[in-house]
Amino acid sequence: MRFLFVIIFIFSVCTVQAKNDIKYTGYEIGNRYKLLQSFIVDYEVENGGPILDGKVSIYKANKNECVLVSKIDGDSGVYGTETILYFYNSKVLYGYYVNYNYIFLNGEGSIKLNKVNYENPESENSLIKLKKEFSRYISNISKNTLRKCSN
Predict the structure, then answer these.
(1) How far is CA 1 from its chain centroid?
(2) Could you count the other beta carbons within 10 Å of the beta carbon of residue 90?
């Protein structure tokens, strides 16, 4: 009986770990989950850089989690970064960053398609850095959305 319990425990731990290893892009999240809220925030590039628009969308991922997708295009309009933050009860559980670049119809770069090429997600992200990133957005999240993303 104990052996069966140990096997079930190990299997459940492996399942939870595997879930965190799946890293969806913002595009995939938008097609996969229900949109709860979206808004735009100012994003100031460090060291006196330009202020860019950050497009933020929040989705209900499952019963226990919501996911925030922040998409910030670079000042050239050719590349950008998505921040993906999974949270519950206003606390970040895990997250990652995904860089991307836009696809252009011609070689001159004058006809931009609304389609992007994603790079591999950054795998090493500290929870402290992700929590700091989340704090930029929390004041813009509605009480209704926060309620749907908590008990």
Answers:
(1) 41
(2) 12
User: Does the pTM exceed 0.90?
Assistant: no
For residue 138, which of 95, 89, 101, 96 has the smallest C-alpha distance?
89
In a domain, residue 8? The reply is no
In the predicted structure, residue 49 carries a pLDDT above the cut 80: no
Q: What angle do CA 105, 71, 63 make, to 5 degrees?
A: 125
Q: Is the residue at 100 inside a domain?
A: yes
Amino acid identity for residue 57 in this structure? S
Residue 106 lies in a domain: yes
Domain that includes residue 125, residue range: 24-147
What are the φ and ψ backbone dihedral angles of 17, each rounded to 5 degrees?
A: -65, -40
Q: Beta-carbon neighbour count of residue 67 at 10 Å? A: 23
Domain count, the chain: 1
Which residue type sits at 11? F
Strands across the sheet containing 91-104: 34-44, 51-62, 65-73, 79-88, 91-104, 112-118
